[in-house]
UniProtKB/TrEMBL annotation, chain A:
<keyword id="KW-0539">Nucleus</keyword>
<dbReference type="GO" id="GO:0000811">
    <property type="term" value="C:GINS complex"/>
</dbReference>
<comment type="function">
    <text>Required for correct functioning of the GINS complex, a complex that plays an essential role in the initiation of DNA replication, and progression of DNA replication forks. GINS complex is a core component of CDC45-MCM-GINS (CMG) helicase, the molecular machine that unwinds template DNA during replication, and around which the replisome is built.</text>
</comment>
<dbReference type="InterPro" id="IPR005339">
    <property type="entry name" value="GINS_Psf1"/>
</dbReference>
<feature type="domain" description="GINS subunit">
    <location>
        <begin position="43"/>
        <end position="128"/>
    </location>
</feature>
<comment type="similarity">
    <text>Belongs to the GINS1/PSF1 family.</text>
</comment>
<dbReference type="InterPro" id="IPR021151">
    <property type="entry name" value="GINS_A"/>
</dbReference>
<keyword id="KW-0235">DNA replication</keyword>
<dbReference type="Pfam" id="PF05916">
    <property type="entry name" value="Sld5"/>
</dbReference>
UniProtKB/TrEMBL annotation, chain B:
<dbReference type="Pfam" id="PF05916">
    <property type="entry name" value="Sld5"/>
</dbReference>
<keyword id="KW-0158">Chromosome</keyword>
<dbReference type="GO" id="GO:0000727">
    <property type="term" value="P:double-strand break repair via break-induced replication"/>
</dbReference>
<dbReference type="InterPro" id="IPR021151">
    <property type="entry name" value="GINS_A"/>
</dbReference>
<protein>
    <recommendedName>
        <fullName>DNA replication complex GINS protein SLD5</fullName>
    </recommendedName>
</protein>
<feature type="domain" description="GINS subunit">
    <location>
        <begin position="73"/>
        <end position="144"/>
    </location>
</feature>
<comment type="similarity">
    <text>Belongs to the GINS4/SLD5 family.</text>
</comment>
<comment type="function">
    <text>Required for initiation of chromosomal DNA replication. Core component of CDC45-MCM-GINS (CMG) helicase, the molecular machine that unwinds template DNA during replication, and around which the replisome is built.</text>
</comment>
<dbReference type="GO" id="GO:0006261">
    <property type="term" value="P:DNA-templated DNA replication"/>
</dbReference>
Length: 179, 223
C-alpha cells in the first residue's frame, strides 16, 4: 500500500513522548521521497497516454496516485516540522549547548536550523532594553524565596520603606517579622 | 529607598503622547499585559513602551542596590522585588515569542496587510525574529524534502498548513469599564445570537472572539 513508510515516520514521532527526539530517520525520509518520484513518473506516463489516446479510464488511477503523493508530502513535512518543534524546545531546556547524546539524533540540516534559531533568539534578547538586553531563558519559574529571614528587630525602625507597589509596615521593637 | 526611586517614569518613546506613570503603576500595567497575553489565544498588541520602561526601572534599581550598604534589609527586599519583576517581564516576552513561533505565517501575513496607523502586534525586534524564523524553517523544509519532490508539489502553503489561533476558545475576564450591548454569536445552529451588558467589576467566562476588542482597549482584563 502506498504511503506506508510516510505513516511510519509519523507514528514514530507520535510514539516518542513529548520532549524526546528520536534519531533522524534519514532512510525513512528517503524512501518516502523515492515513492513520490515513482508515483509521479507513473502519473506522468498515464497522463500522456490519456492526452494522446484519450483513455479516460486511467483517470481514477491518476487521481489516486495524486492523493498518495499529497499524503506522502503531508506526512513528510509533518515529520520534519514536528522534529523542529522538539529541537526548538531543546534550546529552552538545555541552553545553547546541547548534550552530545541529543546532537547525534539530529541531522546536519537540523543542526543548522538549530544554530540559526539560537542566533536569532540571541539577537532578539540582546535588543531588549538598554545595554546587554535581557536573557529571557532564565527566570523560568517565579521566585520562590517568599521568606528571606525572620527579622528580629533590635532597634526601632520607624521609617517604612516603600517598594514598588508594596508597603512595608513599620518594624517595631521586639516584633519578629517574616518578610 | 523611596528617596532614590523616581516618582515618575518617563515614556522613552519620543514622538508619541508622554504618559507619566509611577513605578507602581508601571508594574501594574506590566502585570496586566502579562496576564492578558498569557490567557489570550492570539498574539496581542505589542507593548514595547512598557517593556522599555520596566527595563529602565530594573537598571535603576540595580544601580541603587550597588550603591546601598551591604546587609541592609532593604537590599534583600528590593532584590526580591527585582527578581519578581524580572520574572514577570521574562514570562511576558516568552509567551509572546511562543505565540509568534506557533502562528508565524498568519502573524507575518497580518503584518504585511496591516494599514497605516494600525497598531502592530509585533515590536520591530519581534518582527525581525519572526521573519528569520520563517526564513529558517522554509529553507530547511525546502532543502531537506521539498526540492526532492515532484515539481508540482514543491510549494507548501504555510498559511494553510500551520493552524490558526483558536479565537473561539473560552477565557475568564473581569470587567474594568462597563460595556453595553456586546454581541455574542451563536456556537451551534440551534442557538441565536444575543446581546449582553458587562457590569463593572463582574467576572465572566466567554468566548475570546466576542470580547477581543475589549481586551485591546483595556475595558476588560483576562484572568
Amino acid at each position: 500500500m502506498f504511503c506506508e513508510k510516510a505513516m511510519e515516520l509519523v507514528r514514530e514521532l507520535h510514539r516518542a513522548p513529548e520532549g524526546q527526539l528520536p534519531v533522524f530517520n534519514e532512510d525513512g525520509l528517503r524512501q518516502v521521497l523515492e515513492e513520490m518520484k515513482a508515483l509521479y513518473e507513473q502519473n506522468q506516463s498515464d497522463v500522456n497516454e490519456v492526452k494522446s489516446g484519450g483513455q479516460s479510464d486511467l483517470i481514477p488511477t491518476i487521481k489516486f496516485r495524486h492523493c498518495s503523493l499529497l499524503r506522502n508530502r503531508r506526512c513528510a513535512v509533518a515529520y520534519l516540522y514536528d522534529r523542529l518543534l522538539r529541537i526548538r524546545a531543546l534550546r529552552w531546556e538545555y541552553g545553547s549547548v546541547l548534550p552530545n547524546a541529543l546532537r547525534f539524533h539530529m541531522s546536519a540540516e537540523e543542526m543548522e536550523w538549530f544554530n540559526h534559531y539560537k542566533k536569532s533568539l540571541a539577537t532578539y534578547m540582546r535588543s531588549l532594553g538598554g545595554d546587554g538586553g535581557l536573557d529571557i531563558t532564565q527566570d523560568m519559574k517565579p521566585p520562590k524565596s517568599l521568606y528571606i529571614e525572620k527579622a528580629e528587630c533590635i532597634k526601632d525602625c520607624k521609617r517604612s520603606a516603600k517598594t514598588m507597589g508594596a508597603d512595608l509596615k513599620d518594624l517595631s521593637l521586639d516584633k519578629e517579622g517574616i518578610i | 529607598m523611596t528617596e532614590e526611586l523616581d516618582p515618575t517614569a518617563q515614556d522613552s518613546d519620543g514622538g508619541s503622547e508622554e504618559v507619566v506613570l509611577t513605578p507602581a503603576e508601571l508594574i501594574e500595567r506590566l502585570e496586566q499585559a502579562w496576564m492578558n497575553e498569557k490567557f489570550a489565544p492570539e498574539l496581542l498588541e505589542s507593548k514595547s513602551e512598557i517593556v522599555e520602561c520596566v527595563m529602565e526601572q530594573l537598571d535603576h534599581m540595580e544601580e541603587n542596590l550597588r550603591r546601598a550598604k551591604k546587609g541592609d534589609l532593604k537590599v534583600s527586599i528590593h532584590r526580591m522585588e527585582m527578581e519578581r519583576i524580572r520574572y514577570v517581564l521574562s514570562s511576558y516576552l516568552r509567551c509572546r515569542l511562543m505565540k509568534i513561533e506557533k502562528f508565524f505565517p498568519h502573524i507575518l501575513e497580518k503584518e504585511k496587510t496591516a494599514h497605516e496607523g494600525e497598531l502592530s502586534s509585533l515590536s520591530p525586534e519581534e518582527l525581525v525574529f519572526a521573519k528569520q524564523y520563517m526564513a529558517n524553517t522554509e529553507t530547511y523544509l525546502k532543502n531537506v524534502a521539498l526540492k526532492h519532490m515532484p515539481p508540482n508539489l514543491q510549494m507548501v502553503d504555510l498559511l494553510r498548513s500551520v493552524p490558526k489561533p483558536d479565537l473561539d476558545s473560552y477565557v475568564f475576564l473581569r470587567v474594568k469599564v462597563r460595556q453595553e450591548n456586546i454581541l455574542v454569536e451563536p456556537e451551534t445552529d440551534e442557538q441565536r445570537d444575543y446581546v449582553i451588558d458587562l457590569e463593572e467589576g463582574s467576572q465572566h467566562l466567554i468566548r475570546y472572539k466576542a470580547i477581543a476588542p475589549l481586551v485591546a482597549s483595556g475595558a476588560v482584563q483576562l484572568i
